[in-house]
């Protein structure tokens, strides 16, 4: 059974940066699509970024140019580098592979 564990969330001020990590258990990590999603209170969960097995990526319009998703296949880990954070980025961030979800990590952007 695949398990995903997120880390790296926290409280930051607008304009600051955070890097989230998602450790993924299981074999053949390098071929899998892994995505980062977020859910703010009262909102539906939305996809933020996804990385494919060939390391190509796709981003939501709201984070293009500010967020970067990457993977380290030697560590079975996917990262989400978040720069120029805005208050509207505040949410619980989850990583996902197929039907498996992590427990989420809280990101709060506030002055």
Structural notes for this entry:
The chain is mainly beta. It contains no helices and 11 strands. The strands form 2 sheets. Strands 2, 4, 5, 6, 9, 10 and 11 form a 7-stranded mixed β-sheet that branches. The protein has a 4-stranded antiparallel β-sheet with strand order 1-3-8-7, with no helix packed on it. It is globular.
Assign an overall shape.
globular
Number of H- or I-type helical stretches: 0
pLDDT averaged residue by residue: 96
Low-confidence stretches: none
Based on CA atoms alone, the radius of gyration comes out at 13 Å
Q: Report the helical percentage.
A: under 10%
Quick summary of this structure?
By secondary structure, the chain is mostly beta strands. It contains no helices and 11 strands.
Topology, pairings included?
Layout (H helix, E strand, L loop, with lengths): L3 E4 L2 E3 L5 E7 L9 E6 L6 E6 L5 E3 L7 E6 L4 E6 L8 E7 L2 E2 L3 E5 L2
Parallel strand pairs: 2-11
Antiparallel strand pairs: 1-3, 3-8, 4-5, 4-9, 5-6, 7-8, 9-10, 9-11
Salient structural properties:
111 residues, single chain, 0% helix, mainly beta, 11 strands
